Amino acid sequence: MRYIAVMLIFLQSVVWGYTYNELLLDAQSRIYPKILMLQEGIGAKHKNMPVVFTVVYEPEDEYAAERVVEKIEAYYDHGLGGIPFEAEMATFDELDPSLHSDAFYILKGSDEDMEKAVEFAMREKIPVFVYDFKDLKYGALFALTIEQSTVIYMNRVSLHKTGVLFTPSLYSIVRFVDEK
């Protein structure tokens, strides 16, 4: 009987996608858009058009991506700091140059998908936020974890590669890591 229970738990994540921590999703949905708005020049760049924050996901994680978009829309009601703001969704397969986005929030993905998405973002000079701290190894720019307190990690190597600049106050509150 225990064997069956363990197998069902294992199959749940295989069949229905990765199991996400709701508290972490909530914290990231609140904080990542605010970090994006600390990017230098983003307000001037978006006077007449919204800032677009794209949640990138595997098809089996569509429900988690929908929850993230719903959370962001509930927190920011299509605006942040007086600037129009939209949260959208895209699968890894939908990432191409015709996609307009100002940032990616990547949920879990295969090694190949993660690498492709981050490489695409770097070419387009789009900051990348990830769900899992371990995914900074692909070259993503930001990760947020909940330890004894909330910790924001910034990938120093990716910061230099993308050329994206943020207000100096952000650099004083993040923990820098050197990945990829």
Structure description:
This protein is α/β, with parallel strands linked by helices and 180 residues long. The protein has a single domain, classed as Response regulator (Rossmann fold, 3-Layer(aba) Sandwich). Helix content is 41%, strand content 22%. The protein has helices spanning 2-16, 22-36, 42-45, 62-76, 111-124, 156-162, 168-171, and strands spanning 51-57, 79-80, 83-91, 103-106, 128-130, 142-146, 150-155, 175-177. It has an 8-stranded mixed β-sheet with strand order 2-3-1-4-5-6-7-8, sandwiched between helices. α2 packs across α4 (62-76). The longest helix is centred in the first third of the chain and has 15 residues, at 2-16. It starts with a helix and ends with a strand.
Uncertain runs: 8-16
Strand content is 15-25%
Characterize the overall form. Answer: globular
The number of helical runs is 7
Under the CATH scheme, which architecture would be assigned?
A: 3-Layer(aba) Sandwich
Q: Sheet bearing the most strands, described?
A: 8 strands, mixed
Give me the secondary-structure category: alpha/beta
Biggest β-sheet: strands ordered side by side in the sheet: 2-3-1-4-5-6-7-8
| Chain-averaged pLDDT | 90
CATH level-4 homologous superfamily = Response regulator
CATH class, named Alpha Beta
Number of domains: 1
The helix/strand order is HHHEHEEEHEEEHHE
The CATH topology name reads Rossmann fold
Rg computed from alpha carbons, rounded to a whole number of angstroms: 16 Å
